[in-house]
Amino acid sequence: MDSKFTIGAVCFMIIWLALIRKSQGADINVIKYGAAYQKKKKKKKNGAKADGKPDDRQAITSTWKEACTSTDPSTVVIPKRKHMVGPLNFQGPCKASVSILVQGYMVAPIDLNKFNPQDHWTVFQNIDGLMVSGGGTFDGQGSLAWSQNNCAKTGICDSLPINLRFTGVTNSKIQDITSLNSKSFHMNILNSKNVTLQNITINAPGKSLNTDGIHIGRSSRINITHADIKTGDDCVSLGDGSQQINVENMTCGPGHGISVGSLGKYHNE
């Protein structure tokens, strides 16, 4: 009797631990699709090169596709190294919740031709239950683009790449990341619902043109808390269709504060 009980208890524990592990999901490191820590002779095709050599986009995209198609919660891990990355599209919907742990230093191309016709560098689209965190940085390398933009004189700003765009994102959280020197807006929340941005750092010089910190449009239940924003335009700007926007414990400066813009541009606003 005792031996049967012991065997049954052990089997139960094994199953229980397996279920816990499954519920926690898997960590998928972008290095899986590359050879950052291997010798050059063993380098894999389209791999993430965490030494900072271009271009890690394909490896990150492949890692995302694996995580997004998994039926279990998954985490995409971008390790603590410099990653030169072209335009990224984290496209949903996904089969389960996905977290992106950005520990590294992401660097955008300087050449604007790398983005045509895209107006963003990194976009998260049609995702429910997204978590972006990790303490990493998205460096837009925008200084050259600011000098090419003549909107300070003409009032008409060229469409330049946004560092981070969240479109159709719901029930999600973005925390502990930095947006640095974006060519245009640092973050754009569009057509999204129930999104929290916490412990966000945004940094660009006061001379940077049209670099709104966080722009929100056609979105609701957006919470911004404990943000440190230094930029050349509005720290937070609200566009058309924005509802239930909460901003608290934010520091702003340099910057133009919080603005409500574009109201009346569309019918029945």
UniProtKB/TrEMBL annotation:
Main location: secreted
Signal sequence, renumbered to the chain: 1-25
UniProt entry keywords in alphabetical sequence: Cell wall, Cell wall biogenesis/degradation, Glycosidase, Hydrolase, Secreted, Signal
UniProt-listed Gene3D superfamilies: Single-stranded right-handed beta-helix, Pectin lyase-like (2.160.20.10)
Domain of life where this protein originates: Eukaryota
Any one GO molecular-function label of the UniProt entry: polygalacturonase activity
Family recorded in the similarity comment: Belongs to the glycosyl hydrolase 28 family.
Protein's name in the database: Polygalacturonase
